[in-house]
């Protein structure tokens, strides 16, 4: 349920016209700069509009799909934590890597191989540091 197009998030929350203008401009500017890789972490109190901002940005970016033939260095990935499972540390890297592998074909084979060799990596009781190392860092270091 953490994916952008999950049925759990229908209808998607979106920013109302004229709200969060400065923040959306800032995020879009970061995402449009292909020279820098950026991690954007939205945080704040419940109800402040984090999901609306994230889904508004995702809506703008959803047309981008990276293929092996494309020379695109930028892509959007993220997690929404409305689902109780999403808030558990044991699911964090699994969900993030799932989205990255779907959007970045260059790491998909490495992620699949790691899971075939050690299916326990998908278990939420596996230490997050192990999941991060094998599912996230190792495949990304090969890029």
UniProtKB/TrEMBL annotation:
Q: What is the recorded name of this protein? A: Nephrocystin 3-like N-terminal domain-containing protein
UniProt superkingdom: Eukaryota
Q: Does the keyword Ribonucleoprotein apply?
A: no
Q: Which InterPro entries match?
A: NPHP3-like_N, P-loop_NTPase
Presence of the UniProt keyword Repeat in the record? yes
Organism of origin is Suillus subaureus
Q: Which UniProt keywords apply?
A: Repeat
As recorded in UniProt, coiled-coil segments are: none
The Nephrocystin 3-like N-terminal domain extends over 28-126
């Amino acid at each position: 349920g953490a994916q952008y197009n999950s049925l759990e998030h229908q209808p998607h929350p979106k920013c109302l016209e004229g709200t969060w203008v400065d923040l959306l401009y800032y995020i879009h500017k970061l995402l449009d700069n292909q020279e820098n890789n950026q991690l954007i972490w939205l945080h704040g109190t419940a109800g402040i509009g984090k999901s609306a901002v994230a889904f508004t940005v995702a809506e703008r970016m959803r047309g981008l799909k990276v293929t092996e033939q494309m020379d695109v260095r930028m892509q959007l990935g993220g997690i929404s934590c409305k689902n109780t499972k999403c808030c558990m540390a044991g699911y964090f890297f699994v969900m993030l890597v799932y989205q990255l592998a779907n959007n970045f074909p260059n790491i998909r084979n490495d992620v699949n191989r790691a899971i075939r060799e050690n299916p326990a990596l998908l278990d939420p009781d596996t230490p997050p540091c192990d999941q991060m190392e094998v599912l996230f860092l190792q495949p990304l270091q090969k890029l």
